[in-house]
Amino acid sequence: MRYLFVGGSQRSGTSMLLRLLCSHPTANDVVREASYLRTLMAAYKFGRDDFENDTRDYFGDLAFFQRFNRTLVESVLLNVADLQNPNRSQPIDTLVTKEPHLTMYFPELHQLLPEAAFVLIARDPRDIIASMVEVGEKLQTQGLKHFFQDRNIKQMSNHLKSFYAPSMNSGDQVFRQSLMTVKYEDLVADVDAFILKAKESFGLDLVNSIAREVDQRAKYEAWSTEQFSRNVNDSSVARYTSVLTADEIRQAESECSDFMRLFGYQ
Length: 266
Prior knowledge:
CATH class: Alpha Beta
């Protein structure tokens, strides 16, 4: 089984990228957020970092602890493949999943699944923040509280950057070689170029026709947009100009200047 993890900040285009990668004929259908897998990785990281204090008494040595956690994670992934398989004419051999917060554990996932590949999508932080603001407004109409509603540009800037920091700061060169980065704007401008890159890098046979009706659960209603059911398109590029004020744009550019330099937005 080939494992492919999609990562990036909330509102960066991870759902669109997931749908595109799942168009490979022997990949799984689009699945919901891998929230449970994220909790497993958080537990693994905690136990690994605290191994010499408490964890050792329960597992003996670090190598066994890592094998134990690999078994847990792989069991979850293989179960997803089994659930996806009944109505298919051929077995699934590529499992693609994502959950933005799982991105923060990509280096740990690589420790447990060194054969896995990772695709990290970056997006203009001004557009990410604008989308966060819009989500906050929708949540407010539902009577739900979220820090996105405060339009605190500094807080949202730090939040979006936190998704990328573990991968970008990793000194593990083997992990970095397993990590592909793609810019949202490049993807929507030329999806065929990305399809060719995915073929060369992963052996995937993707198609650019990924429009589909989405059975969106009420939990995610405020987080969904029309893009969730459309083909890849560039209609959301630079939308921040109609959402953020001039002062908010300047602050976002200042707070995210390091991110913008890293990913080529300056």
